[in-house]
Amino acid sequence: MTERIEFVAKTVDEAVMNAMKHFNTTRDRINVRIVEEGSKGLFGFGAKDAKIVAALKDITEIPQPKKAEPKKKAEPKKKAEPKVETKEEEEQPKRPAPAPVTEEAAKHGEVAALEFINGLISSMGLDCTATTEVQTDCVKVVLHGEDVGTLIGRRGDTLDSVQYLTNLYVNKKRKGDDYCRIIVDSETYRAKRQETLVRLANSMAAKATKYRKDMSFEPMNPYERRIIHSALQDKPNIKTKSVGEEPNRRVVVMYKK
Fold first, then answer.
1. 191 in helix, strand or coil?
2. Which of 16, 100, 238, 242 is least surrounded by CB atoms within 10 angstroms?
3. Would the CA dihedral through 49, 51, 56, 60 be positive or negative?
4. CA-to-CA distance for 78 and 95, rounded, in angstroms?
């Protein structure tokens, strides 16, 4: 019977790589069963490693290469321009405008959002306060105080997480007209960050045009990637696409003739 071994790592991919090194073979020659996917946790707490069980495939399971059939000479064809596959559609902000929030949903959103965020601030022992502002299509929660930097995090990652969790809490089992979108900001952080990203996008586009080569950003979250795509979508001779997998997905700015 083929030996089955358990491998533990931060991600499933790392665990599979460890299995390949252990068996000294390639991915197509081992069977892998994922026991636990693993998770990053919240704000660095509660993270769990990924766990897999791997074993070498039996010789009968390994696909054998097919014998190549002699190829017939084909008439020369015109060279087609290479097609660039991108996933930028998921990033592009070409989507319907958010629906207006109803009065009842806005009232519920204000109360529930403050309840969740004030509870979070209290449990973390932070010197912060939260205020709300009802807008046409959402309820905006603004954070103030000495410790807002803790809730912003690196490049706004923590602020995005707080916003995501607040939306889950506010809209649990609520759909349609009962749904209320929540935006969490820290004073003017998001506006300043957007201005910075737009300036950076234009700078990268200028470099791509000057040097006639692709320019790559550092990894960004989906919200920031959408800002880059939106800023450059009408730029002449410039195309953008997102490459890589989360959390290392990034925007590439390409010069096109």
1. helix
2. 100
3. negative
4. 37
Structure tokens given for 87: 């996933």
Main-chain phi, psi angles of 76, to 5 degrees: -60, 135
For the full predicted model, state whether its pTM sits above 0.70. Answer: no
Task: Name the band, by pLDDT with cuts 50, 70 and 90, for residue 68.
Answer: low
Alpha carbons 168 and 163: distance in angstroms, whole number: 9
Residue pair 161/137 in contact by the 8 Å Cβ criterion? no
Half-sphere exposure of 100 (CA within 13 A, CB side): 4
Query: What pairs with residue 53 in β-bridges?
Result: 6, 33
Count the helix, strand and coil residues of the chain and give each as a percent rounded to the nearest 5: 40, 20, 40
The residues facing 39 across adjacent strands are 48
Residue 185, SS3 per DSSP: strand
DSSP secondary structure letters along 95-160: SPPPPPPPHHHHHHHHHHHHHHHHHHHHHHT--EEEEEEE-SS-EEEEEEETTHHHHH-GGGHHHH
Output phi, psi for 183, to 5 deg.
Answer: -110, 125
What does the pLDDT look like over 193-248, one tens digit per residue? 999 999 999 999 999 999 999 999 998 888 889 999 999 999 999 999 999 988 78
CA distance 216 to 107: 43
Tell me, what amino acid is at 109?
G
Six-digit token string for 215: 């320019």
Is there a contact between 10 and 50 (Cβ–Cβ < 8 Å)? yes
Q: Is 243 left (phi over 0), alpha (psi -120 to 50) or beta?
A: beta
Closest CA to 101 of 186, 171, 33: 171
